[in-house]
Amino acid sequence: MTVRRIVANLAAADPAAVAGFYAGLLGLETVMDMGWIVTLAADTEVAPQLSLMQEGGSGTPVPDLSIEVDDVDAVLDRARSMGVEVTYGPADEPWGVRRFYVRDPTGRLVNILQH
After folding, report:
1. In this structure, are residues 6 and 28 in contact, taking their beta carbons and an 8 Å threshold?
2. Residues of the chain whose pLDDT is less than 50?
3. Can you list the domains of the chain with their CATH numbers?
4. Cα separation of 42 and 40, whole Å?
5. Is the pTM of this model over 0.90?
6. What is the CB-side half-sphere exposure of residue 112 using CA atoms within 13 A?
7. How far apart are CA 80 and CA 90, in angstroms?
8. pLDDT, averaged across the chain
9. What pLDDT shows up at residue 3?
10. Distance in angstroms (rounded) separating the CA atoms of residues 67 and 74
């Protein structure tokens, strides 16, 4: 048996509006829209991961989502241009990532990072 993917399912009263936030911030594409569910994806292959955390590192709260990108500073610039408040960072962490936190329109804490 092989795990092929792990999907984050986020409750949202208006899935399309929240999808717009993630599409705008991260450049994700809508791959399915049935009204009650909107699925976004990137055209990349990734290994499934599941992190179990006591804290978010560097004394931060545990984020609801961690999203790795190839250019964290470009996403940071995009977040700022969208008027999204950065709640932590940007920070170069001792374990080798550069990251920042934002909140999505539903209030979830999102960790954007680059190794």
Report:
1. no
2. none
3. 15-43+55-114 (3.10.180.10)
4. 7
5. yes
6. 26
7. 12
8. 96
9. 87
10. 14
